[in-house]
Design a protein that fits this description.
Blueprint lengths: L1 H7 L5 H9 L3 E3 L2 E2 L12 E3 L14 E5 L3 E6 L16 H8 L4 E2 L8 E7 L2 H12 L4 E9 L6 E5 L2 E6 L3 E6 L7 E10 L2 E8 L6 H8 L10 E2 L3 E2 L14 E9 L6 E5 L11
Parallel strand pairs: 7-16
Antiparallel strand pairs: 1-2, 1-3, 4-5, 5-7, 6-7, 8-13, 8-16, 9-12, 10-11, 12-13, 14-15, 16-17
Length: 278
C-alpha cells in the first residue's frame, strides 16, 4: 500500500505515508491498513487527514474608501492578502469577502507589508483599474526604513528582477540581468542612526521590488532577513520571502475613478516606526 500512495500522492514522502499508516490514519474498506498490505481492485482507500491548523494572523482591517465601484482597505502587517502557504481564513480576502462578497483585490501586498489594498466591486471597474495599474495611470507610493547612509537624497533605480536559485524554494525573485524591467524612484525623508526613512514610488510591480531595489544600492531594508547588498539573497540564508523583520508600508495610491474619471488619492498613515520624527 505504501508504494501505491507514494506513486499516486507524491506530495508526501514514503516515510510520511508509513507514519500515517502506523498511526491508523489510512483505512482500507473501513479498517486500519498496513504498510505492506497488497491493495485489491475495488477496495475503498481513505486517508483521515488531521485537521488543518491555520497559523495565527491579525484579523482586523479598516476601510479607507468605499463606493459601488471601489473598496480601499488597510491591511495590517502579518496578515496575508490572499490564500496560500497554509493560510485560508486568516487572509485579507477572506475577511473582506465576509462583508463585501463582490470585492476582488487588484494587487497584493507581502504578508509583512502594511497599508492600502485596493479592491474592485464590478467587472467594469476592474477592467479600467487594471488598465491604469498596468500602464502609467496609477501612482503607487510606499514608505520604507532602509539601512545605512545614502549619498543621494533622490535616486532612480532601474534594475531587472527575475528568479534566482534558492536553497529551500528552488527559486526566488531577486536582482537578475535576465529578469524583467523594474524601476523605482526613491526620495530620502530623514536620516537616522544607521538607517534612513524614504518614500518609494514604483513604476513597475515586480515581486519584492522595493526590498530588492534598495538592497541593490547597498541599503537593504532594516531587518530584512532575505535580501542583502546587491539585491540578492544573503549568502547561506534560509530565510523565505514571507519571513518578518523589515518595515514597509503602502502609503498612497493616486488614480482616476473608473466610473467618472475624477482624480483620486487614497492615503494611509504609516506605523509609528515609519513616521517622520522631525
Amino acid at each position: 500500500m505504501t508504494a501505491y500512495l507514494v506513486h499516486c500522492y507524491a506530495h508526501s514522502t514514503e516515510q510520511e505515508w508509513k507514519e500515517r499508516i502506523a498511526a491508523g490514519q489510512v483505512l482500507i474498506d473501513g479498517r486500519a491498513g498496513k504498510a505492506d498490505e497488497v491493495l485489491k481492485r475495488g477496495s475503498e482507500l481513505i486517508w483521515q487527514r488531521p485537521p488543518w491548523i491555520e497559523p495565527d494572523a491579525p484579523r482586523l482591517f479598516s476601510i479607507l474608501y468605499e463606493d459601488d465601484d471601489l473598496l480601499a482597505v488597510v491591511k495590517p502587517a502579518g496578515l496575508p492578502t490572499l490564500p496560500g502557504a497554509n493560510f485560508l481564513q486568516n487572509t485579507l480576502l477572506s475577511l473582506v469577502s465576509a462583508s463585501a462578497p463582490n470585492a476582488a483585490p487588484l494587487h497584493r501586498l507581502g504578508r509583512w507589508t502594511s497599508g492600502i489594498v485596493l479592491f474592485s466591486r464590478n467587472q467594469g471597474a476592474r477592467r479600467e483599474l487594471i488598465r491604469q495599474w498596468s500602464g502609467n495611470g496609477m501612482v503607487k507610493r510606499y514608505r520604507a526604513l532602509a539601512s545605512g547612509s545614502p549619498e543621494k537624497y533622490a535616486m532612480t533605480i532601474d534594475l531587472p528582477i527575475g528568479p534566482v536559485p534558492h536553497e529551500l524554494l528552488g527559486t526566488v525573485h531577486a536582482a537578475s540581468p535576465d529578469g524583467k524591467r523594474a524601476r523605482s524612484r526613491v526620495t530620502v525623508l530623514e536620516q537616522r542612526q544607521g538607517s534612513f526613512l524614504c518614500d518609494v514610488v514604483i513604476e513597475t510591480g515586480r515581486p519584492h521590488q522595493i526590498r530588492i531595489h534598495l538592497a541593490s544600492t547597498g541599503h537593504p531594508l532594516v531587518g530584512d532577513p532575505l535580501y542583502g547588498t546587491g539585491g540578492v539573497p544573503v549568502i547561506g540564508t534560509r530565510a523565505l520571502p514571507g519571513d518578518p523583520g523589515y518595515h514597509l508600508h503602502a502609503l498612497e495610491l493616486t488614480f482616476r475613478h473608473p466610473a467618472d474619471g475624477r482624480k483620486m488619492t487614497i492615503s494611509c498613515e504609516p506605523p509609528a516606526i515609519l513616521r517622520k520624527e522631525a
